[in-house]
Amino acid sequence: MDTAGLLPLVIAVPLLGAAVLVAGGRRLPRIVTDALGCAFAAAPAALALLVLARVAGGGAGPYAVEWVGGWHLAGGEGVGIVLVADPLGAGLAALVSVLVVAVLAYSWHYFEEPPRRHGGAFTALILLFQAGMCGFALTGDLFNAFVFFELMGVVAYALTGYRVEESRPLHGALSFGIVNSLGGYCMLLGITLLYARTGELGLAQIGRALDGRAPDGLVLAAFVLVATGLLVKAAAVPFHFWLPDAHAVAPTPVCMLLSGVMVELGVYGVARVYWTVFSGPGGVPHPDLTRALLVIGTLTALLGALMCWRQRHIKRLLAFSTVAHTGLFLTGVAVLSPEGVSGTALYVLGHAGVKAALFGCVGVLLDRYASVDEHELYGRAGELPVTGVLFTVGGLALSGLPPFGTGLGKALAEEAAGQAAGWLPALFVLVSAVTGGAVLRVALRVFAGAGRPPRAAEDGPETTGEAEPETGGRLRRVPVPMLAVPAALLAGALSVGVLPGVAATAERAGRLFTDARGYRAAVLDGRPVAAPAAVAQHWPTTGILLGLLSTALAAALAALAVWRPARTGATALTAPVRRLQSGHIGDYVAWLVVGMALLTALTATGLR
Amino acid sequence: MSPRGRLGLFLAGAAVVAALFTVACLGLPPFGGAHHPYGDRAVRAAVRHHTSNAIASVNFDQRALDTLGEETILFSAVLGAVVLLRQTADERRHTPAPAAVRPPIRRFGLLMLPVALAVGLYVVAHGQLSPGGGFQGGVVVATALHLLYIAADYRALERVRPLRPYEIGEAVGEAAYVITGLAAVLAGSAFLANVLPYGTFATLSSGGTVPLLNAAVGMEVACGVVVLLAQFLDQAVQIEGADGGGSDDDGPRGPGRRERA
């Protein structure tokens, strides 16, 4: 079968698996549903990797274009939906699928018991999540992207609230659901504006139609609305409030997917829609987009890092670190250069492995000690050396230590960002150091019992981390998959930085991704686009040094926090910022509207 | 944040967004124009495939992948509701008492049930010919069954609605859509391609795969809505929390009375 024909299968196979599990889940024993789930997730993973290998390897060309239902364009016009795999889209679909397989392996026998009379429901939901995310990564149609956006959302709300025995998961799922649905409505409204103007729904078609005339208020409004929906998914400030509330309470395997890939898909969506639809003369001018994303990205990175440092609930800490890194990803995309995109792609790839591994380690703590509170767990996890080592390595990788993929991605992204504004590399170093430092601080306290026991709680009960274990009872012995999967994920993050082929593919993916004309030619004119020649990617020397610097800073911060805890009024200083995360959904909605106004203000100058 | 602060923040942001949206609406094409680029193409394509309801052609043929996604959203939402509303370890289930229903209501409900059921099935079956289709007809069919809850009581509803077949039916509807799409691949065409003969225009068998996909969606929606409503009804009527109270806090206590609330 040709490469393009494989694309729908990547979406269809997990859907079929979910239907099989829902129909047969009650009758089948746990081991069979788990194995079926893994098989139905692994098959599209293999397909996505095959597609990636083919579009990245040249030969048939860098774009695989599939018109679903055979509704090809006739005379440049059509009525159908197109799926497009360029190396970046195919790579994301492969990342999603591989991570889903890892998560299913991690949660092998994980939960106490499947819901009564509904064995296989959890696995089915994960498969539906996989289909939604792969569809979002592979579609070349804006409305179709919205459909998969909603599918991801609906599944993620249910997965977040999965542990209904407690009230906090339901509250987290509720604010996740409401804020994301509002984002979805914004996106739909933006799509209708674009459709009213152009009569098209395909990304390439809309982009080509828009370029026929000068941009006006309608185009700007459409961009703001669509970008709002995607930035909510990406958890960019001030749309980010749902994320920590949801990640702190979602089951650990779900956190691995939410933080590892779903949030990043929001960043991907912003970049994809901008490049295919709005990057031409009829869209949003490049300087305006750069300004908007740089402001939002910087705010997101700084606020995320600050809040990350101030957490003692380890899952919330990791959630805020995801917010901070999303800010860096947005910054890497904001500079609108191929190098920025390819650096960010590598960063996302490395981050997915590292963050999922860290969540996996926290899952072990949760199931053994029924707590994810840094202070309460002080010195108690010394008996888990393997978990401790994995967690520490994860912290070092998060802070950008070469030769991890996070280090390479950070090095390339900050180099690209530095060409746009000289101070941006400092932001990358600072945010990596603070988030990595927070993780290392936890590692020192929890696994090594270093320093003095933390003082009695000065925080309210809402920020501490007592929780019910997700397994039947407290774990006595850590199951092998719960350690093997984080180890494999960290090895994967390492290989991203070490294998030269990965970086070379990302470099080409970045150049193809930012070539709007080539994308439109491949999709609309069916013209084979020559694959750009591969350029060997090297670790930039400055990048290595800055990576070592941020790692050293992270270690220093962690050591300082543990052995010389500050007695200054830092708590009072950050209190107003922390109060923003109030848990009140009305606040979050107000901030969402403010975010739209901010986006408008940052891009409106391009009108005249 | 104080309510006043929240409102102020919201209004400040909303003012900017409202201004932007007003400007956007001024740029919309005027009403009553003759320029409908997608509409014209879609109708031509629908006629080419002998589907007299152009909307059905867009839903189940031209943009069938969107509909697969939408069907899956409903499927996921139902599965999510099943998971979230499940009976937890500290909740117990009791049998609702039979309820007295006034004879006029009972007669009306029993009279309307077959009518509503027939209308629903008609709407599903004629999806490719006239307005309606699997989504709309499926909801009507599911609603028809619940007339029994109004005309009789919860136990009567449970007798015609053993949940298990409906759960399977829902999954089969979802799978049937995917398998129809995959069958086109096996037939050597594209995923979800309309590979069947298009039939005679404006007859029940016209439209190729459109009636099949339509029926798959109808089955999924009808069964899905039954399962979904069952979760909420279960929660309201049958499941009690650990404290002996029900899940609704302000209704009158006691299973028999609460059931009708």
Description:
The complex is a heterodimer of chains A (about 600) and B (about 260). Chain A is about 70% helix and about 0% strand. Chain A is mainly α and about 600 residues long. Chain A has a domain at about 1-140. A two-stranded antiparallel sheet of chain A has the order 1-2. In chain A, α6 (about 165-200) packs across α7 and α12 (about 315-335) runs antiparallel to α16. Chain A is globular, with a radius of gyration of 23 Å. Chain A starts with a helix and ends in a 5-residue tail after the last helix. Chain B has helices spanning about 5-25, 35-50, 55-60, 65-85, 105-125, 135-150, 155-160, 165-185, 210-240, 255-260, and strands at about 90-95, 240. With about 260 residues, chain B is mainly α. Chain B has one domain. In chain B, α2 crosses α3 (about 55-60) and α5 (about 105-125) runs antiparallel to α6. Chain B has 10 helices and 2 strands; from the N terminus they run ααααβαααααβα. Chain B has a two-stranded antiparallel sheet. The relative contact order of chain B is 0.14. At the A-B interface, α1, α4, α5, α6 and α8 of A face α1, α2, α3, α4 and α8 of B.
